[in-house]
Specification:
Elements: E1 2-9, H1 16-27, E2 39-45, H2 52-67, E3 73-79
Antiparallel strand pairs: 1-2, 1-3
Length: 80
């Protein structure tokens, strides 16, 4: 079983890297883009035989305590 964790900055947090990427995209001629925000993506391979509920719980705890900074970031966990 695998978990996918998406970590993004909270909407109220400034994203200078996203702004720099947006500027570069505009310079390449993609003027239809309103904004870009950057984030992080993690794949966590889980032990065989684990229930989906346990996998969700463990991965959520890992994301909350290690992968994301709860002051400035939100996260989302998907079990696949």
């Amino acid at each position: 079983m695998k978990a996918k964790v998406y970590v993004t900055l909270k909407p109220s947090v400034l994203d200078p890297q996203g702004k720099a990427i947006h500027h570069s995209v505009e310079l390449l001629g993609f003027e239809q883009i309103k904004s870009i925000r950057q984030g992080k993506y993690f794949e966590v391979q889980l032990a065989e035989g684990m229930s989906e509920s346990d996998a969700q719980d463990i991965t959520t705890r890992i994301a909350k305590n290690v992968l994301a900074n709860p002051v400035i970031e939100d996260f989302r966990v998907e079990i696949v």
